[in-house]
Design a protein that fits this description.
With about 625 residues, the chain is an alpha+beta fold. The protein has 18 helices and 16 strands. It folds into three domains: about 170 residues, Sandwich (Immunoglobulin-like); about 210 residues, Up-down Bundle (Rhopdopsin 7-helix transmembrane proteins), CATH 1.20.1070; about 100 residues, no CATH class. It is rod-shaped, with a radius of gyration of 49 Å. It holds the Pfam family Zn_ribbon_IS1595. InterPro entries: 7TMR_DISM_rcpt_extracell_dom1, 7TMR_DISM_rcpt_extracell_dom2, Transposase_Zn_ribbon.
Length: about 625
């Protein structure tokens, strides 16, 4: 089925626009027309249309004609104008809906000349147009029409798309003015979006936030939709490859829908907070995209799907139900999302022919929503980066403040130590003087000592017996108390220092790589290998490794058990050291095992006794 149409201009029965209209730009009203069942109309030429008296164009009285039926539909549109309007000024005829496969424009002077003015659309490369503008335009002030009273404009449509029959007449100066302004504003729009993308990329490289990836995807989707709606892709990107315009037109709306859904769910944290709602939103959006891309043709649009608005309304409801929890986030996101939602509602209403308006805010409401949302989302991420930077700076200031305090403490200690060294040097000087006097006294006493040596020799045997008796008493714990032992090892640190001296008396050697260079390690008196970075505790490889009670008491327990040759109960050790009996039993068992192994290595228990309890330390 093919269609024949006529346009009724300004409601005049003779289809004339009168000269007295003073406006610089005229919007030609579109009236709905009756459809005719004419076969093979696609093969009719302009000459056939004009000369065939059986072809009649029928006008109607309803506004807003939208062509939605079939694919590769061919139809003709006829408009008649009073030529007096064009004799005084130069006018441009404009077809704002440039989403057509092919449109051919002709000017006809009734009874005389037929002029072919333009042939354009997605079936042709952009450079083949005579008048290179994003919309399809041609002049109405041709020299061959100067003497005519009326002129007819014929438009032949051959298009697989949904088309809105809507036209504009503009004086040349007015057309240039608003056309330049329109290109300027569109360039500003895409420039802002590109700057937002660059900002998002820089922020992503800085803070590695996953939501920034979705924001960048959303901004690219916004550019794709804008290039499709404005038809700038066919002019600047794909002017030699018309087929790519079909691809962008087909997929850009679906990409934009998905980018909005993914960005909103990620930004609002819906997946983490309510996974079921997240699955519902993503599921419906995926079904919409799948159904549209697989089953719908170019003549359809995604806005007309009955379920299209559901994911966006769910997100909108989620924002309001969680606005108290996400107050700081929503204040940036809500404004842009409301504009997007308004634009989506307008697009949906327009796709159902419920609300069609040529108002620029209605036509570009969706594009403005994309731009505003991208701007506010980028601002929110920028503020987030600012907050992170401020927190980092604050942490650095705290660290610097702490370092200054530590530096001051160190300086005070150095100063205190310096004063102490000075006072000790004075003491040493005094002691040296005393030593000089003592040396003199010693020389005097040397002679007396020589005289006493003989006497001492006779008493030596008796003294030796007394010493053996004293050693035996101390070994058997007859005289040594915990207080006396504590005098030798007053603190845990003194025990660690003693342990360090015994363990590494022959020099440090790394247990892993045998490297001998070391630095101060982590832990009490630990050493860290400079080659492999292995940190070795001072207790590693000793009887005190993995000790779970104070090492000072462990030293004393080794001394007691060794002195008693293991013949002491855990109960007695518990009372002496004020420790749990089970702990004393476990460690005394470990000491006895060490004594047994050491006796076997040395050959006898007597040999171990001669070396003393210190021989048990290194295992």
């Amino acid at each position: 089925m093919f269609f024949l149409f006529i346009q009724k201009v300004n409601g005049q029965d003779n289809f004339l626009i009168h000269q007295e209209i003073p406006d610089d730009v005229l919007y030609v009203p579109t009236k709905k027309v009756r459809m005719y069942d004419k076969k093979n109309i696609e093969h009719l030429s302009i000459e056939n249309i004009i000369s065939d008296s059986s072809i009649e164009f029928e006008s109607n009285n309803e506004e807003a004609l939208v062509i939605t039926k079939g694919e590769d539909q061919v139809f003709w549109v006829k408009l008649r104008f009073d030529n007096q309007l064009f004799k005084n000024d130069r006018w441009i005829f404009e077809i704002p809906d440039s989403h057509v496969g092919e449109i051919q424009a002709f000017i006809h002077v009734p009874g005389d000349t037929i002029m072919k003015m333009e042939k354009a659309g997605y079936y042709h490369t952009f450079k083949s147009r005579d008048y290179k503008h994003k919309n399809i335009i041609f002049p109405l002030d041709h020299q061959n029409t100067q003497n005519a009273d009326e002129i007819d404009v014929y438009l032949r449509y051959d298009s697989p798309f949904q088309n809105v029959l809507f036209y504009k007449l503009s004086k040349t100066n007015a057309f240039l003015r608003y056309s330049n302004t329109e290109y300027l504003l569109l360039g500003l729009n895409y420039g802002i979006l590109i700057c937002l993308i660059l900002t998002g990329v820089l922020l992503y490289l800085t803070i590695q936030d996953k939501s920034l990836g979705f924001l960048i995807f959303f901004l690219f989707g916004s550019i794709a939709v804008g290039l499709t709606e404005d038809n700038l892709a066919s002019e600047y990107l794909f002017h030699n490859y018309p087929y790519l315009n079909f691809i962008l037109l087909k997929y850009s709306a679906a990409i934009s829908m998905f980018s909005i859904v993914l960005m909103a769910t990620q930004f609002l944290g819906i997946r983490k907070e309510n996974f079921r709602v997240y699955l519902l939103i993503i599921g419906i959006a995926s079904l919409n995209a799948l159904y549209f891309l697989v089953f719908k043709s170019l003549n359809d649009n995604i806005w007309k799907l009955p379920t299209f608005l559901i994911p966006f309304l769910l997100i909108f409801g989620y924002i309001f139900t969680h606005r108290n929890q996400k107050k700081n986030q929503v204040r940036y996101f809500l404004i842009g999302y409301l504009v997007i939602l308004t634009g989506l509602v307008f697009q949906t209403l327009r796709s159902y022919n419920i609300f069609i308006s040529d108002n620029i805010f209605v036509v570009y409401s969706y594009n403005m929503g994309l731009l505003i949302t991208g701007l506010f989302m980028t601002l929110s991420q920028t503020e987030r980066y600012k907050i992170l930077k401020e927190e980092k700076d604050e942490a650095q200031q705290e660290l610097i403040k702490d370092l200054k305090i530590r530096e001051r403490i160190i300086e005070d200690k150095v100063e205190e130590r310096t004063e102490k060294i000075k006072s000790q040097s004075i003491i040493i000087e005094n002691k040296n003087k005393e030593l000089g006097w003592v040396n003199d006294e010693l020389n005097k006493q040397r002679i007396q000592i020589q005289n006493l040596n003989k006497q001492l020799k006779t008493e030596n045997e008796k003294l030796h017996e007394d010493v053996e008796h004293l050693e035996t008493a101390r070994v058997l714990m007859q005289e040594v108390t915990f207080e006396e032992f504590e005098g030798m090892f007053p603190t845990d640190e003194s025990c660690y220092e003693y342990l360090e001296e015994i363990k590494w008396k022959n020099g440090f050697s790394c247990r892993k790589c045998e490297h001998t260079d070391f630095a101060v390690g982590t832990g009490n008196n630990a050493r860290r290998c400079k080659s492999c970075n292995y940190n070795e505790s001072v207790t590693t490889g000793t009887l005190f490794h993995r000790l779970h009670f104070p090492i000072k008491k462990a030293f004393y327990m080794v001394f007691i058990v060794f002195s008693k040759k293991g013949d002491i109960s855990s109960t007695k050790l518990s009372e002496t050291l004020d420790m749990r009996q089970n702990t004393c039993w476990k460690f005394s068992k470990k000491i006895n095992e060490a004594m047994l192994r050491k006796s076997e290595v040395l050959g006898s228990d007597d040999a171990l006794r001669k070396q003393g309890w210190e021989a048990l330390i290194l295992t």
